[in-house]
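Please go through the protein record below and see whether the fold suits the sequence. Record follows.
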Amino acid sequence: MKTKDYQNGLRDGIAVAMGYFAVSFTFGMASVASGLNVLQAMLISLTNVTSAGQFSGLAIIAAGGTYIEIALTQLVINLRYCLMSFSLAQKLDRTAPHWHRILMAYSVTDEIFALDASRSGALSPAYHYGITSVAVPGWVLGTLAGAVSGNLLPAFVISALGVAIYGMFLAIIIPPARKNRTVLLVVLSAMLMSFLFSVLPVLKKVTSGFVIIITTIAVAGVAAWLKPIEDDQRPNQAGE
């Protein structure tokens, strides 16, 4: 069962790896343009694995910002991963040793979380590791390719690469939304709430990091209240 779960993770993670390669390619180019070398850019991608966090941190580094500025910015932007980890902890196979939680936390990203959350039954750590095995190398190798390429590619190609991750994310959330009406309502509600934050005068002042956090808590909280999953509906082992 663990081998099969890992293989399924590898298969599902290919699309994530391809999207990550495209986005991190741009990050690699931006890193070199900001004065970092190839190794430094790769180490940032390997140890962070966060698109918005890395780009914001790079901007602070390029501007000569302080460690405090970087730390606070990363805290706000990446705080949503704590919420995702809490959610996955409830879905994780109850027979899995606790040390898996520490290892899995390294690669909890928006896209990997979406795949983990849409998995039927309890979440097997092997499935998560399968996704990570291709997604993280895709992110790091994309950074390497972008850093080496420098500014050789035309601007329209760079813009296209930046849009790729959004198409990948839609490919992840659409299938479960089509199967489950509750998931569809959650997705539409989150989209509507995010739209309101982008157009209403007062809400527009909220930073993007806090928008994600507020939207996640509000939408997920209401969904959990209206459509709770009873304890007897939660499987004890992955695939049951």
Q: What stands out?
A: The CA atoms of residues 121 and 232 lie 12 Å apart. The two ends are 11 Å apart (CA to CA). The longest helix spans residues 2-33. Residues 232-240 have pLDDT under 50 and may be disordered.
